[in-house]
Amino acid sequence: MSEHILVTGGAGFIGTHLCAALLDRGAHVTAVDSLRAGRLPALTRLRQHERFTLIEHDITEPLDWRTPVTAVMHLASPIGPAHVRDHPVPTLLAGSAGTVNALDIARRYGARIVLMSSAEVYGDALVQPQPETYAGNVDPVGVMSGYQEAKRFLEAMAMAYRREFGVNAGIIRPFNVYGPGMLPSDRRVVAAFVAAALSGQDLVVNGPKAIRSLCYVDDFVTGLIAMMDSDASGPINVGACEGTAIGDLAELVVSTVGTGSVRLGPSTETDAAARVPDIALARDTLGWEPSTPLKDGIRAAVDDMRLRIANQATVRFDVPAAWTSLIPEVSALQCRADSVGGALRWLTESYPVLAPRLLSPDGQLVSWTNIYLAQDNVRDLDGLDTILTGDVTLIALPAMAGG
Ligand SMILES: NC(=O)c1ccc[n+]([C@@H]2O[C@H](COP(=O)([O-])OP(=O)(O)OC[C@H]3O[C@@H](n4cnc5c(N)ncnc54)[C@H](O)[C@@H]3O)[C@@H](O)[C@H]2O)c1
Questions:
Q1: Residue 265 pairs with which residues in a beta bridge?
Q2: Candidates 47, 77, 173: which one to mutate for ligand 1, based on the most atoms within 8 Å of Cβ?
Q3: What domains sit in the chain, N to C, each tagged with a CATH number?
């Protein structure tokens, strides 16, 4: 059988890079994604490929899937401290129900399955660097527990399916991954720093000495595919073994971009002091180690985001009467965005008081049908992911405006 690989979360940052790499080696690829995190421009390119299919589906619900697959890559999960803190319930459901649904597909077809855990399973690590044998230091009711416990459950269930049902499951523990394809609206550290520097703003550093492992996405995907091609159970750490202080990262981004400045902010509960992997197991089992120098990777990420921002349109919001009491000091709203969803996400993040009008209880943007585009500056009408090709004004209809 020719390779057919199901990628949950295939429309995301790592997922789109993985799908592209799998297509390059001749596989048929089906991405299953709720499009919860928005649609990346890379997805538009993938959809032009004849061996690529996208199924819009929430993996926390069983998928009626009846085509044999050779492998399942389970990436679907909300991510990012800010989002996970605000929406722990869908995060825990993706790690629990979503993981079971992905494992069931692999079990049905005797397929290899690789599941994406996270370095967050180590919590506030007391061992440096972290080997896979370190069991972690996680507070089960802490602010990040929705994500940490989701990933710990994912690992436990993967091992349970392996031991009880003989499923060929393998667990990867990624540390921070970055590179081209990150959205300017992404609030994870590298994307947030690059976006801030490109717009000449302050890069707010909440713990300058906190150490992170930063792995370039192409290196990471090579490790992920090596894991898919092996029968290893893991868990296996995949990340850069050299730690980078967050303050140094901010300085590197500012010097690469040429604008922006570093400002110290208050430290937060989510800033574990150091998270750096011991990658001896990845070297021995997968023959993998990262090779892209941080300076080169940041340069590629900056160039990509610079281009993306240059192509954004100016979006004006026609402020409905029902919003003026919520944001009385604001008479005109305007942002730069490349899609309708991107503009609405900016609105919810910049004015959280509007979020209840724009987001469903689990943090998803409400239907775009409540938004009216005052101009025709779009390529194809494609819901929230409608690409803007020129400046537009968005008008909220009464259902969304709350009037
Ligand atoms: N990027 C990193 O630095 C990093 C680090 C550690 C772990 N990981 C893990 O890697 C995976 C991919 O991360 P990413 O950076 O590409 O994130 P991402 O947000 O860009 O991609 C995740 C994708 O999953 C989809 N998704 C979320 N919930 C879903 C659901 N219930 N059903 C279907 N689709 C759903 C989103 O729409 C999104 O497209 C995640 O499991 C994440 O926890 C990533």
A1: none
A2: 77
A3: 4-179+216-239+275-290 (3.40.50.720), 312-401 (3.10.20.30)
